[in-house]
Amino acid sequence: MPWLPPQSRPFFSELVELIQKRNLPKGKAFHGRLIRNGQASSCLYIANCIVNLYAKCGDLVKARIVFDRIPCRDVVSWNCLINGCSQLGSSSSLGVVMELLKGMMVENVLPNAHTFAGVFSGGLDVTGGRQAQAVAFKIGCFGDVFVGSSLLNLYCKSSIVSDARKVFDEMSERNLVSFAAMISGYASQRLAKEALDLFGLVRIEEDESGNEFIFTSVLSGLTVPELLDTGKQIHCLALKYGLLCFSAVGNAIVTMYSKCGSSDNALQMFTLFDDKNSITWSAMVTGLAQSGDFEKALKLFSSMHFAGISPSEFTFVGVINACSDLSAIEEGKQIHGYSLKLGFESQMYVMTALVDMYAKCSSISDARKGFDYLLEPDIVLWTSMIGGYVTNGDNEAALNLYCRMQMEGIMPNELTMASVLKACSSLAALEQGKQIHGRTIKYGLGLEIPVGSALSTMYAKCGSLEDGNKVFRRMVTKDIISWNAMISGLSHNGHGNEALQLFEEMLYEGTKPDYITFVNVLSACSHMGLVDRGWSYFNMMFDKFGLVPKVEHYACMVDILSRAGKLKEAKEFIESATIDHGMCLWRILLSACRNYRDFELGAYAGEKLMELGSQESSAYVLLSSVYASLGRKEDVERVRRLMKLRGVSKEPGCSWIELKSRVHVFVVGDELHPQIGDIRAEIRRLWKHIMDEEDCLPTFELASAYSFAV
DNA sequence: ATAGGGTTAG
């Protein structure tokens, strides 16, 4: 049967050429001619070629029609169709590929190595891959290098490197292709050591120096500064073996230098590059942006135009990120315009970068416009938009969008859940948070760092400390953020001792605290009135961990001292502070002086604030009340006039609470709540209770809150 | 006649 009659030979060679060129229009015309002169179905060779022609050109419908008309299809006919589907690579194609594999076996056509190589290179579905793997094993195609390489590549692409390695180890024959696939699998998982080990093995086992594929793969895994020297050595090897003429190798070297923190080497490599292509430019622009050289990145981006290379979607993503980090919205908008001009308006990655940029630049409505433009946003774009709302403080919008996403049946990922949980934390929306917790379990997301941390924070912030702690204890790996979240949760809910205990436990486990940890620890000391421990933690920051205390830490210290009534000590501490502390320290002292009725010191602190030009209304209100207590009426007037003169006004206070799925909002001075009468009566009752209590002197804040409320 | 690997991105 596989025989090509002499009269078909000229047609055959012309067909092969059309297939190689993927020339569908000419191919169609040629197919028409073959039908007219009766050659189309003269032999299986020609028929298969025609199936292959349509399949390679992506016209699977036509390929299938021709295929269905072949009277006795052989394994090649099926393989052509399968490969066509594989190369389309759409999400639905894997199902089709599996159907075809089944179909051929039903017709008693035995698959061969070509079949499986095609099947494995088609989709990214692991389940399908495993099924087909079993069939390949049974039929005895498993030993083939092509089959093994494409299967291990499938596992790599699905991020299951361990399974890929199993296939790799079990292969009876390996070649450079199998090595390249395996190395790149490790590299993409950032397992540089494993990738380098295999790279070394290539030279022993294959007795070869490798090829351009091996080099690009191993280079792409070198992404941290510690590997810079290794990267340099591999660069030298590439030079020695004459592989620098492959632009992919050069591109990988440029990226390697950027990621390993050597922009200089990257730029040098880039400058010496003979024929820079779009990838080279993108790699360099992105590299500069990621190293924090945003201006250089933007400059290089504009010179690209003059070099006659037009930016790709990759370049845009890189340069838009530079704008986000710079908060350079004007440049960002221009680049957005440029990307529209080049027709990237529907590119998912570009749009995600734009949404991030607008969100970071506080233009959340522009971010939303971009998001709405894409009809089928993928999960990363959904997550960026939701996360954008969260960073801009519009937590309701974040949750609304998340609900819409759920209704559209989009499966969230870890980062989506972490964002919506953060929204729940900020809103203190416990019920919603619990539901989302349920979802994470349903989706099998576990308690890995983004979700686990967000969950324990959410419970802690919503006052459900036990649940927060439960989640925290079940997390297998905790990072500093998880610890901070739990410590702060305990501290904020009045469990200062437990907060400090947890901090000690953290130190014991060898986790290094950061600035935020110390803010939480010091504020716990403040709530507990622990002056000595406060001092010891404050000193520990620099002495033990090399952390220079920031203004927040000074503020906590002032708070500790003044709450404990050590007002003079607090004043001396502020005046000896070596940092540019601004006004907040005096503001804390002033309020403490008011509460402790040390009006002289209060006036001193208040006048400091007046000198520094405070814009906080509370500073003026507090100081004038201090002067009122001292009976200095003219000073009261002066402070009030100053407040007016400087245009300081009071932001109305606002608070809310969620009860039985309803959110109750209160703004200072409003009468809107339907039960406002009952609420006021209850506040009066509580106030009376406080006043009746012995030794219970309400603070100034409490007293003013009371006077506002009733 | 049919097959496998690499470089840039959210």
From TrEMBL:
Keyword annotations: Repeat
One GO BP annotation of this record: RNA modification
Entry keyword Repeat: yes
Pfam assignment, any one: E_motif
An example molecular function term from Gene Ontology annotations: RNA binding
PPR repeat intervals: 144-178, 277-311, 378-412, 479-513
Protein name: Pentatricopeptide repeat-containing protein
Species this protein is from: Cannabis sativa (Hemp)
Record gene name: LOC115714335
